[in-house]
Amino acid sequence: MRRKLSVILTSSLLVLSMFTTGTAFASPFSSVVSENETKVSPGVTWKSTVYEGEGDIEKVHMLDVNLDDPNTTLEVGIPNPFDSLEIVTEQAKQNSLEGHHVVGAVNAGFFDPKTRLPISLFIKDNQIYNFGLYELDANSPTNASVAFGIDKDGSAQIDQFEHTIRIESDDVDVTTNRINETRNEGELVVFTKPYKRSWANEWGTEFILSDVTPSMDEIEAGEPVTGTVSKLTRVGEYPGSEVPEDGFIISAHGQEWAEKLAALDNGDEVTITFDFNRTWEDAEYVLGTGPLLVDEGKVSISMNQATSFAKSLHPRTAIAVDKSGDRVFVVTVDGRQPGYSDGSSLIDLAEYLIEQGAYRAINLDGGGSTAIAVRELGQFLPSLQNSPSDGSQRSVSTTLLAVSNTNTGQAKTMKLSKEEGKVFVGTKVPIDVTYALDQYLNPVTVKTEDVEWDSNNDAIGEMEGNTFVANAAGQTTVSANFEDSLGQIAVTVVDKFKELQIAPNSLKIGTEQSTTFKATPLTDDGSPIIFDESLIKWATKGNIGTITDGGTFTAAEQPAEGEIVVTVGAMEVTVPVEVGADPEVVEEFETLDNWTESSARSVTELSLSGVPSPVYEGSKSLRLKYDFTTDEQGIKASYAVANQKVQIPGKPVELGLWVYGDGNKHWLRGKLIDGVGNEHTIDFTEEAGLDWKGWNYVRASIPNDLPLPLSIKRIYVAETLPEKQDKGVLYFDKLQAVYNTDHEEPRFKDMTSEHWAFGAVLSLTNDNIITGFPDATFRPQDNLTRAQAAIMIARELQLPLADRPNPGFEDIDNSHYAYEAVAAVADEGIIQGMSAEQFAPDKPLTRAQMAAILKRAYKLEGTDGKAFKDVQATHWASKDIKTLSANNITSGYPDGTYGPEKATTRAEFASFLTRVIK
């Protein structure tokens, strides 16, 4: 009786083409910056390494699995149901049980995000879960029929997979090795789900098998499957059918096959048997993926290396085996995160794997799917260790799980910990059990009351339960006994300190805002001291606010400057404080030296822009060009990444940024780093909120409880919806820290709130009717041109611009910036030309023309308005002007005139238009 073999069959049967470079190479990842290695179970070691080379950084994780260890297995995880997706850590959690401890997990093979099924072959316990698709060329990573798996002897294998399909009935017995790929001349192909159709032509003979038993989700490798012919077509009958859910299509080309299959007819019972090459016979599982990276210790990449997928730096996941098949190691490389990790090309990855001992190696799914989880010492479940390029884990189809098949025993080792630093005399410090481990490095639950505590020098310090009480200067060792384990930790007691460090050491803060200071005494060598905080005396100097005994400062209601005074014994330290501080610019974007672009499933270009391009302040702005139209599926984002984090002084309530928008309605966000290194996402707009054109000031609120000091690492534009993933350009300028929530940033540099038309201009700007000029001015006293009036009217009325008839004006063609708006308002009869041939787009709009336009655009009625001294009854716009007066839109000038021939200023038109709307 064969063991079941779970297989996801999704590989190409193309001839395996290798692109070999040989073995002579320099180390692809250069200097080691940091390296940590931990044995997480007797058979599994986790290593984390940071490499830095010529401009590149690689953060690499490796799970090294010894299959020769009797309690160690490398298993494949699949979600339930099979056609669903789940993140790596969740799959690891679901497979972790007592006696079956998942100590490491990584994402495995490629999958189709639409069907949520693996793209290539997978066999598990002899059951064929999915036959896969093979319409792939040499540019695809899964073009070759290669796989990783564990064979029937428990050894790891990386090899080609080949399958033989035998088709039998009472009168037919034929074989083929073609499945789910284009049927070429003289070939017989079997089509299964998720393949959609056979797409055969009139030269084909085709049979649809339905009612297959066992069912499609119970098919076993090497075991016969029986179905009934429910439909057939012969040569000349134009076959080509959808693949049934409960069966197969047998499709053959040419007369020779037609004769071999002539005996098959509707209702006939047909048996199909799927067999695999000897390497995978009775294997525990087979995971089709690719490309192959290493063969017999040499670089051997089974795809076109000229593709962007192969040669560009991307996040990667790969698995390798040594020659014996007993050692297998999985490697992940983070990427697309400048300053943290750039990623790897396929050839560099292959060379690195050889350097680590690979005899054969194969690529797994990478990019945003790359994720590795490890059960750290003392943890009960694996936790994410790498930094996925999406910012969070992507749900995936299959995972590889390193498992320790051991039951938890008694504690054998124990680790103790305490707050970092030396202990000041008279201070009480808790000693904690960080973890206790059994002989297999499984965590053991420890109750503090079950631990025996002791100090080897009670004169220096003694134990009260798990609390150390410092008595005199000197050093002692604290011991803890639990079951068969002993933990120890050294404790140093001091009776004086050299320096008192206060954090933050200066403060800008908004009125009525709060923050907490921390005082840290330091020894001669700069190391911290643990001491009783009741010894600290906190006070304020000046009318800046109040501070508690615990160091929590609350700012006054009014702006003020002063100091926090901190006293411990004879030592006094002062901290300057500014309450109600004005905003402080933290980045002017006058240079590109500190900024780099990064992309998530997009193309990003970062550059400096200078006048006459949009610049709000100074001489430059940061230009971010994004392209979300790439083929890769998922959330897309383009980043401006600070190589050195931009420091933010004090405790602001928000960050403000000037953004020149493109109106594409995306999402503008940022990444903030707090004082202990944690990342926080902040929103400059809501999702779809980047909806304006021209300059606009945006605000991102900062959570109140973040540890100081703060810094910003990224500013980025993102889009979650596939139908909105387009391309565009944004400009950034004047990033500033704001300390008061009531701060008002002027919308235009040349208009303050005192200007008589400020409210009207602000209202139209908020509605994206007015955008101003690229230099962030509105120019209220400039004359409004007829073209500008057409644009503002078209925007306010939300007139459709597409497919308007050409208005026939000789002085404005379809390349003019206002052509679409002019065509729309002309088509609607709102703005007429100066003549049939001339629109005069650059001429000022007169006040008489303005009256006529507004009356027509908004269908205003009434003629009982006041008479103006300079508007005769015979004037062509007399009725239009009276209608504006009757609707309280104009009252003219103080001298009783209207000024019909005067040019309309931009401020006047904004004011008139706002009155009409309201």
Automatic annotation (TrEMBL):
- TM stretches of this protein: none
UniProt keywords (A-Z) are:
Signal
What is the protein name given in its UniProt record?
SLH domain-containing protein
Q: Which Pfam families does the UniProt entry name for this protein?
A: NAGPA, SLH
Q: Which InterPro entries match?
A: Cell_Envelope_Struct_Comp, NAGPA, SLH_dom
Q: Which domain of life is it from?
A: Bacteria
Give the residue range of the signal peptide: 1-26
Q: Give residue ranges for domain SLH.
A: 744-807, 809-863, 864-918
UniProt lineage: Bacteria, Bacillati, Bacillota, Bacilli, Bacillales
